[in-house]
């Protein structure tokens, strides 16, 4: 009977482990409204004030607890013809079409973060790719009109995201705005795994009650 209880207990541990794995999720959002609905406590950062309007500065940038660096890191001040005059941070390639332009975003660890991005230098070409510290990788759509159109991408995870890298095989990659948020219901175990755990616990209770005492009569 002890061995049966041990096996049941092991089953419960396995089920609990499966429940933990099932709750580990990362979701990509390309619609900012949907991203906002899935998150809370958002903090929005832009690059206004990082450098003077109409000028550019070379080097990495930190906005709140989010930092940016790049192959060639440049902040473009407001007032330019790009993106309606919005300030933005860009990564440019030293050898366009040969060497990639890469941008690295690092943060203390957030369960949700989104970006408004664009591309003022490229004329078509390959799409952007983005890789997270979680190991997940995605392909982003390239905005249709360089320097005018923008795209949005956001990620919600129940595992803290500590870095995001953007990769572009063309000329450059631009970020106009960052939205750091708290994940809404991420990390809550799904109903099915919870049901499995309850079933396992019930099995242990039933086995315990079915224990019998053998009496030897001589």
Number of strands: 12
User: How many H/I helices?
Assistant: 3
Uncertain runs are 8-23, 185-218
Structural class: alpha+beta
Helix content: 10-25%
Query: Major sheet: size, sense and barrel closure?
Result: 12 strands, antiparallel
Element-level helix/strand string: HEHEEEEEEEEEEEH
CATH class designation of the largest domain: Mainly Beta
CATH superfamily heading of the largest domain: Galactose-binding domain-like
Number of domains: 2
The CATH architecture of the largest domain comes to Sandwich
Characterization of this structure:
It is a single chain. By secondary structure, the protein is an alpha+beta fold. The protein folds into 2 domains: 1-23 and 189-218; 25-187, Sandwich (Jelly Rolls), CATH 2.60.120. It has 3 helices and 12 strands. Strands 1, 2, 3, 4, 5, 6, 7, 8, 9, 10, 11 and 12 form a 12-stranded antiparallel sheet that branches. The protein is globular.
Chain-wise SSE layout:
Layout: H1 2-22, E1 26-29, H2 32-38, E2 39-46, E3 56-58, E4 61-63, E5 66-70, E6 73-76, E7 88-92, E8 101-118, E9 128-132, E10 137-140, E11 151-168, E12 172-183, H3 191-209
Antiparallel strand pairs: 1-11, 2-12, 3-6, 4-5, 5-8, 6-7, 7-12, 8-11, 8-12, 9-10, 9-11
Helix pairs in contact: 1-3
In short:
The protein has helices at 2-22, 32-38, 191-209, and strands spanning 26-29, 39-46, 56-58, 61-63, 66-70, 73-76, 88-92, 101-118, 128-132, 137-140, 151-168, 172-183. It is α+β, with helices and mostly antiparallel strands. Strands 1, 2, 3, 4, 5, 6, 7, 8, 9, 10, 11 and 12 form a twelve-stranded antiparallel β-sheet that branches.
């Amino acid at each position: 009977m002890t061995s049966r209880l041990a096996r049941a207990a092991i089953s419960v541990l396995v089920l609990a482990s499966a429940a933990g794995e099932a709750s580990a999720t990362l979701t990509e959002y390309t619609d900012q409204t949907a991203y906002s609905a899935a998150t809370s406590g958002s903090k929005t950062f832009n690059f206004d004030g990082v450098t003077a309007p109409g000028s550019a500065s070379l080097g990495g940038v930190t906005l709140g607890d989010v930092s940016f660096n790049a192959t060639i890191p440049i902040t473009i001040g407001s007032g330019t013809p790009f993106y309606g005059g919005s300030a933005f941070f860009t990564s440019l390639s030293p050898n366009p079409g040969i060497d990639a332009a890469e941008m690295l975003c690092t943060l203390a660890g957030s369960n949700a973060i989104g970006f408004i991005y664009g591309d003022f230098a490229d004329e078509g070409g390959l799409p952007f790719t983005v890789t997270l510290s979680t190991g997940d990788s995605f392909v982003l759509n390239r905005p249709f009109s360089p320097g005018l159109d923008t795209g949005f991408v956001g990620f919600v995870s129940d595992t803290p995201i500590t870095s995001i890298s953007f990769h572009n095989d063309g000329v450059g990659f631009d970020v106009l705005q960052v939205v750091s948020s708290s994940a809404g219901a991420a990390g809550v175990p799904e109903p099915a795994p919870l049901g499995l755990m309850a079933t396992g616990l019930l099995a242990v209770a039933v086995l315990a009650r079915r224990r019998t005492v053998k009496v030897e009569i001589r």
